[in-house]
Structure formats: structure tokens, C-alpha cells
Design brief:
A hairpin with a 4-residue loop joins strand 15 and strand 16. This protein is of the alpha+beta class and 430 residues long. It has 13 helices and 17 strands. It has two domains: 92 residues, Nucleic acid-binding proteins (OB fold (Dihydrolipoamide Acetyltransferase, E2P), Beta Barrel); 301 residues, Bira Bifunctional Protein, Domain 2 (BirA Bifunctional Protein, domain 2, 2-Layer Sandwich), CATH 3.30.930. Helix 4 packs across helix 6 and helix 4 crosses helix 13. The chain binds one RNA strand of 75 nucleotides through strand 1, strand 2, strand 3, helix 2 and strand 11.
Length: 430
RNA sequence: UCCGGAGUAGCUCAGUGGUAGAGCGAGUGGCUGUUAACCACCAGGUCGGGAGUUCAAAUCUCUCCUCCGGAGCCA
């Protein structure tokens, strides 16, 4: 089957082809009119005159509306006057379906109105660019792990127990008992690492936090690799290679889209290994030197992260956090019992945390002690503790928030445009 | 949950006590190279809901609702 798509226009210059799409814009004159045809891969200006097109096709100018679906047959040629550089001289137009008055006009709209019409807004050039870049990022993620012999181990979305505090989980009814929507697949990922060595899980995760910021969604996608016999340094090595690869793939395949978004690509070209690595304690010193009233033991806020990351032109990895502000499963620093072998990666330009990870606690006694400190019991984590009972092993992993990465790479102000249908505290529809 | 901002035509907004406005979009007509095309004409309103002050409220007061931005929490 031979198909023609606008993004490949260069390949069929001079040929008579049929393009299938929607009327992105129509500009009419008396004896000539211009149809901007959108087919999902690009936009082609089609010129319709009464000389080259048949009478019925030409007369469509008085009938066609924005976003009407239409087939256009004509000859494609290079044309500098046309946006995109190519143009179709139309011979024949076939209206597939006339569109009602399109809600999204060519002038400005407010964000809430556009989000109410998200199902239509996705047709716009800007949204197309963002979602295509998202696609490339996700493909890069899968390719990266595939090339390094990781096995995909899918983890459950319905989960019995909270990993990090029930308050932030969505509860649902599961045949008479309570179940929670996953906010991480990590504990299951550790079981996977013991079974397959190097694994990753990749799926939607859910947070019921009532966060109202430009960095939060209630439903977002997270990829979580978990590696047997990896310590914290190996974990950081992998994380920086991973992020570098993702950025490189977007630069290689999505230049036009980055241009549509007016992204400063020099900022992305700077993303090369090695990334700076600083300890939490060094991070505290940076804050204090910048006049922040910050004491060892506190967690970094959004503004603190921005100050730290702005010291560097590439992502910075902050490691060895105070144990008290991190999760129970993180391994104690053998050299300092107050610290855990955690790592956060902060994106440049103030985009904040894109990765959180750690080396995991492999000493069952220390793990049980931490579980009890959190007010839980051994029984609550019985299968998880089995991973330490039956051949405990050093292992590490991290989670990367896909939408945060899309926000950063695209240079967006808000995370809500990075997923086709965002879920936020105030948005469940469409 | 806390702090700040906003809600007026289909959309984006102006209008700070005295007859509700503009641009865009829709509609009608014109135009053979348009680039968010342009020009002319034209229709379109329970000023978020409720209560109050006043001769008079989009405008002042109270209250509720919704949304936006920020904080906290996090990817």
C-alpha cells in the first residue's frame, strides 16, 4: 500500500498524489484560495484556482470550514512562498465531512479553555511538537535499556500496601478490601532484579497529593530501572548515561519540533557526561553561601533546588541525603549512619528533580528496624523481606519522571502540556 | 490546607456608582499569491451564584462556587 504523508513531501515532488487530512486554515480570495492541509505529520499549503481545479472543487471555498476533513489530489512542488517550502497545486478536492464551527480559533485562548478542549487542542502545531518529542523520549528510554540487556518487568498498578505513606495514595475498592493505585513499582522491581539481574518497569503512577504547581500531575509516567550488584556510584553512572542518551536522541530526531517550541538547543547540546556529583552536605554549603537560611537535615525545596542546579550547565546529582528525610528502603551510608545512599538528579534551568533513586538496604536487620521506625510491621513487608532472606545482594535503581523530562527538554513553563490528557487536582476531563 | 489573583459576548479582554464595549470568531458581500490574509456590513450579553448598601451596582460590602499562580509534598 502506497501512502503519502506531508512530512515526506520532498520525496514526491513533481508527482500527482492524494493527501488526506483536515483543513488547518483557509485563506480565500476571489479566484484563488489557499487551503492549509494538516495530516498529522505536517502542514501542506494547497493552492486552489479555477484554472487547475475542477468547478466543484473550487466551489468548496464557500463551504469548507476549519478542521473539515478532506482529500486533496494535486501536484506537489517546491515553493518558497509556501510555509514549509512545498505546495500542492490542487486538481481535485473531496470533502469527507464538514466540521461544525471549530472551538479553537486562530487567536489567543486561555489555558483552562484550551484544556477543556484538550481533545482538539492536540491538533495544534505546538501540541503536536510536544507529543512527538514525548514519543521520541519514550522510545529512547526503551532503546537505552534494550541495548544494555535490561528485561522489562511490569509491576502491578493495584497494590495492597503503601510504599511511602498512605495519605498520598489513591484508594480504591478491590473485591471487599482496600487497594491503592501504584505510586511506584520499585519494590516489585527489586524482586525483578533478583530474578533477571537488570530490569526496568515503565508505567503510569499515581499520587493523591494536592499539589498545585507547574511540576505536578496526579497521574504520570515513570520508568524505574533496578540493577543487581550495582552500588550507588554505578547507579549514578547509569543515570547520567541514560539522560545524556535521551537528550541526544531528541536532538537527533526532533530538531523541527524543538524549533517550533523555540527551545534554545545549545542548552541541550551541553548535556554530556560526566554530570557534576555533589553530596547533600555540599549542597547545603552551596545554599548557605547563597544566603539561604538552611540547616543540615532539612529537605530541599523547589527554590533550593533551583539555586543548586543553577551552579551547573548540566544536570547535577546530589547524593547521600539525611536518612530521616528519605525512604525506609534506602541503604545506610557505611561511613555515616545518619545518611543514606540516595541520589537525586536536578535538571538545569530550574526544572528541578527529574530522577530520584538509591542503593537499597540489603541488610535485613537494618531494614526491619527502619520498617518499625515507620510504624509498620515485618508482616506488612513479608514478601519484600524475602528478597533479603533468600540471597540478599547489593542493588540499586532510580525512577525518572517522564513528564518532568519532557517539560525540561521542551523548555515548557508547565508540565500539563507534556501528556496528551493530563490529570491534575482539578482536571479529570477530557 | 495556607497565601495571592481572576470570573463581563463563542474566545481574549477593556470597562471603579449613572443607557454594557472592543478585537477575534460566526454570518453576508468583495478581492488571482494569501502567510493568525485583507476590506465593508451585520448578529450576538441573566456582567460566576446568592444576599445586602444605594434613587441607581459589572463597579461598593458579605458569602458561596469555580479556575489560575505560589507554598508544602514529591518524579
Amino acid at each position: 500500500m502506497k501512502e503519502y504523508f506531508i512530512q515526506n513531501a520532498k520525496a514526491f515532488v513533481g508527482e500527482t498524489v492524494t493527501l488526506k487530512g483536515w483543513a488547518y486554515n483557509v485563506r480565500k480570495s476571489g479566484k484563488i484560495w489557499f487551503l492549509l492541509l494538516r495530516d498529522g505529520t505536517g502542514i501542506m499549503q494547497c493552492v486552489v484556482t479555477s484554472f487547475d481545479a475542477d468547478e466543484a472543487s473550487f466551489a468548496l471555498k464557500d463551504e469548507i470550514t476549519l478542521e473539515s476533513s478532506v482529500l486533496v489530489t494535486g501536484v506537489v512542488k517546491a515553493e518558497p512562498r509556501s510555509p514549509g517550502g512545498y505546495e500542492m497545486l490542487a486538481h481535485k478536492l473531496e470533502l469527507v465531512a464538514i466540521a461544525e464551527e471549530y472551538p479553537i480559533s486562530k487567536k489567543d485562548h486561555g489555558i483552562d479553555y484550551l484544556m477543556d478542549n484538550r481533545h482538539l487542542w492536540l491538533r495544534s502545531k505546538r501540541q503536536n511538537a510536544i507529543i512527538r518529542i514525548r514519543h521520541t523520549i519514550i522510545k529512547a528510554i526503551r532503546d537505552f535499556f534494550d541495548a544494555r540487556d535490561f528485561t522489562l518487568v511490569d509491576t502491578p498498578i493495584f497494590q495492597k500496601a503503601a510504599t511511602e505513606g498512605v495519605a498520598t495514595l489513591f484508594a480504591t475498592e478491590y473485591f471487599g478490601e482496600k487497594a491503592y493505585l501504584a505510586q511506584t513499582g520499585q519494590l516489585y522491581g527489586e524482586a525483578g532484579a533478583a530474578a533477571f539481574g537488570k530490569i526496568y518497569c515503565f508505567g503510569p503512577t499515581f499520587r493523591a497529593e494536592k499539589s498545585k504547581t507547574r511540576r505536578h500531575l496526579t497521574e504520570f509516567w515513570m520508568v524505574e530501572p533496578e540493577m543487581a550488584f550495582y552500588d550507588l556510584d554505578m547507579n549514578m553512572d547509569l543515570a547520567e548515561e541514560f539522560v545524556t542518551y535521551i537528550v541526544a536522541q531528541v536532538l537527533e530526531h526532533r530538531r523541527p519540533e524543538l524549533e517550533t517550541l523555540e527551545r534554545d538547543t545549545s542548552k541541550l547540546e551541553a548535556i554530556q557526561v560526566p554530570f557534576p556529583r555533589i553530596s547533600y552536605t555540599e549542597g547545603v554549603k552551596i545554599l548557605q553561601k547563597n544566603g539561604v537560611d538552611f540547616k543540615w537535615g532539612d529537605d530541599f525545596g523547589g527554590g533550593d533546588e533551583t539555586i543548586i542546579s543553577s551552579q551547573f550547565d548540566r544536570p547535577v546529582m546530589v547524593h547521600r541525603y539525611p536518612a530521616a528525610i528519605k525512604a525506609f528502603y534506602m541503604k545506610r551510608d557505611p561511613e555515616n549512619d545518619k545518611q543514606v545512599m540516595a541520589l537525586d538528579m536536578l535538571a538545569p534551568e530550574g526544572y528541578g528533580e527529574i530522577i530520584g533513586g538509591s542503593q537499597r538496604e540489603d541488610d535485613i536487620e537494618k531494614l526491619i528496624s527502619r520498617i518499625k521506625d515507620d510504624g509498620a510491621t515485618e508482616e506488612d513487608y513479608s514478601w519484600y523481606l524475602d528478597l533479603r532472606r533468600y540471597g540478599s545482594f547489593p542493588h540499586s535503581g532510580f525512577g525518572l519522571g517522564v513528564e518532568r523530562v519532557v517539560t525540561w527538554i521542551c523548555g515548557l513553563k508547565h508540565i500539563r502540556e507534556t501528556i496528551p490528557f493530563p490529570r491534575t487536582i482539578s482536571r479529570l476531563n477530557p
